[in-house]
Specification:
Elements lengths: L1 H21 L4 H22 L4 E7 L2 E8 L2 H12 L6 E8 L5 H21 L7 E6 L2 E8 L1 H12 L6 E8 L2
Parallel strand pairs: 2-3, 5-6
Antiparallel strand pairs: 1-2, 4-5
Helix pairs in contact: 2-3
């Protein structure tokens, strides 16, 4: 059994290494982003449990909060809880007041994210791994460190994808 798992582990490490060499973030920031996501999610889930549906996405220490919360007070409290996890440059609080997303909605968002990423690859107008794609309730959030032309191309491709209701650009620009 261990022999069968080795290629998967090695393959996963190879994919991560390739992603890191093409990423505009430093290796340290890449690792920080992973840690921010884990710490922030743990803090919020520990405090609020299943009363919220929360996705935490960090890119270059800019954090996107997406999902659903029961009320405005909880929305603000979740942001403060996440901010307390430290090492965050900026928070984009896109939490929506309403019932938690259904399994069907989450599945559709996952599909939309996959289609958008595939369209990025097929269009070959920019390095697709420079743009992080997050979909929540049909809204596609785009994060990354990009040129303005790359941001425009990504937004155009995302906005013309079936199932996308709205596109929100949360980029950092390098030009």
């Amino acid at each position: 059994m261990q022999t069968a798992c080795a290629p998967l582990i090695i393959g996963g490490a190879a994919v991560t290494a390739v992603a890191l060499t093409e990423d505009r973030r430093s290796t340290g920031i890449f690792i920080d982003d992973e840690a921010i996501e884990n710490r922030a999610t743990l803090r919020a889930k520990t405090r609020f449990g299943s009363t919220i549906h929360l996705n935490v996405t960090s890119y270059n220490r800019h954090v996107l909060l997406s999902g659903e919360v029961p009320d405005e007070a909880t929305k603000l409290a979740v942001e403060e809880e996440v901010r307390g996890s430290g090492n965050i440059a900026k928070i984009h609080n896109e939490l929506v007041v309403g019932p938690n997303a259904s399994l069907l909605s989450v599945s559709n968002d996952t599909r939309v994210t996959g289609v958008v990423k595939t369209r990025f690859l097929e269009a070959n107008r920019f390095q697709a791994n420079h743009v992080k794609v997050v979909t929540e309730a049909g809204t596609v959030y785009l994060l990354g460190i990009v040129k303005r032309s790359e941001a425009d191309a990504a937004a155009q491709l995302a906005s013309t994808t079936s199932g996308v209701r709205r596109v929100v650009k949360l980029f950092e620009y390098i030009d």
